[in-house]
Design goal:
Blueprint (H helix, E strand, L loop, with lengths): L2 H40 L6 H5 L4 H8 L8 H11 L6 H6 L1 E11 L17 H11 L13 E2 L8 E13 L3 E2 L5 E2 L2 E2 L10 H6 L6 E8 L12 E9 L5 H8 L4 E4 L15 E16 L2 E10 L6 H13 L7 H6 L18 E7 L14
Helix pairs in contact: 8-9
Length: 374
């Protein structure tokens, strides 16, 4: 290394050391400011907000923010500001309102959403929009864990639904009476619906136009939108064109029954260890709708549960059969995991035409609203 190069390297090291020292000094300053804020926080009543989230000690918090001075209208303003400091929570609602466990039937057009579930950190999702609406309408009683939230399925990006179902605790207008006929602000049980909040109307007023709540139903606390579901039904729409529909239907009938569908899904080895699923219904139907000579058709598949991308993979293989690229026997070969232990490479069918048609439960009757669109 030449002398000039050594000098340049020395200058770079010196600058980096200077920057590092500046960062270390700034960290010390921030730590000091943080310690000061923690000290101030410990002297006020704000630590009670954590208890308030669980529904307890709300009364104490309200009394602490109230002014001891004569009520001249400022008390209401101060209470309002105090509640606004806690996003998603309204002190008055939490104090005076009960909660109940309900199931909601959801319809959505999935084209602009990154799927239903919000775990992928991609926005927007259907789930994130629903929770924004629940917070805006003050129907929520906490986060997903606190509200015992469950969903029937997590449809992929672009997939739509007219029968998705979720379950969670929501605020209630009803009061549970005790033995002395006194009301409490606790959990509402039973199937009473008269006098209850019109959940459908309230939520549809604030949800985007491509998401609608179709109905609600009171359910027991042991209900799970996922595990209590008896069957799920999907519909895949397509243009008939020159496809051989009889061959596609004969091939699709081979899916009925319990099979290992690992060659008809996107592998998720980290979370799925059993690839056996039961299909109870398969049919192809045609409609009277036509476009440029093409007839609109639909594939209906019903089963107890489905694997990741299972329906789209099944449809993709059926399209190859309908085009004459594959024979009907390819279904038998792919369902035989000993004969075909590894999934062949093929493109899935597009996501936009896929619709989660319905989710079936025992003794769950959804109540609609007299005002659907507001």
């Amino acid at each position: 290394m030449s002398k000039e190069e050594r000098e340049m390297a020395g200058d770079v090291v010196a600058r980096l050391q200077s920057q590092l020292q500046s960062l270390q000094n700034r960290v010390k300053e921030l730590e000091a400011e943080n310690a000061k804020l923690v000290s101030q926080l410990s002297k006020c009543c704000c630590h009670k907000t954590e208890k308030m989230h669980n529904g307890s000690d709300v009364k104490c918090f309200n009394s602490s923010v109230a002014s001891p001075r004569t009520n001249n209208g400022d008390d209401e303003t101060r209470k309002k500001k105090a509640s606004e400091r806690i996003p998603g929570y309204n002190l008055e609602i939490m104090t005076h309102h009960s909660k109940r466990y309900v199931a909601l039937k959801v319809m959505y057009f999935g084209k602009r959403f990154y799927g239903f579930a919000s775990e992928a950190q991609m926005d927007p999702t259907v789930e994130s929009e629903i929770f924004k609406a629940l917070e805006k309408t003050r129907l929520s009683v906490g986060d997903k864990k606190e509200s015992l939230y469950s969903r029937c399925g997590r449809t992929d990006k672009g997939v739509s639904a007219v029968g998705q179902v979720i379950a969670l605790y929501l605020r209630s207008n009803l009061k549970e009476a005790d033995a002395n006929n006194n009301t409490s602000g606790e959990l509402i049980s039973g199937t009473q619906t008269e006098g209850e909040i019109d959940y459908v109307r309230v939520l549809n007023r604030v949800l985007p136009n491509d998401i609608r709540i179709l109905g609600w139903s009171p359910v027991s606390i042991d209900f799970s939108a996922r595990f209590s579901c008896l069957a799920r039904e999907y519909t895949y729409f397509f243009w008939g064109g020159n496809l051989n529909l009889p061959d596609m239907e004969n091939a699709g009938k081979k899916f009925i029954g319990e099979h290992d569908f690992r060659n008809f899904c996107k592998m998720d080895a980290a979370n799925v260890h059993n690839y056996r699923r039961r299909v109870t219904l398969f049919e192809i139907s045609s409609s009277n709708m036509r476009f440029e000579g093409n007839q609109l058709c639909a594939i209906k598949v019903k089963g107890s549960a489905f694997l990741w991308h299972q329906v789209r993979c099944m449809v993709a293989v059926l399209f190859m059969i309908g085009q004459g690229v594959e024979s009907i026997d390819v279904i038998d070969a792919l369902l035989d995991t000993e004969k075909t232990p590894r999934k062949p490479q093929y493109a899935m069918a597009p996501e936009i035409p896929l619709v989660l048609q319905s989710c079936h439960f025992e003794d769950v009757n959804f109540i609609c609203s007299s005002v659907f669109y507001v």
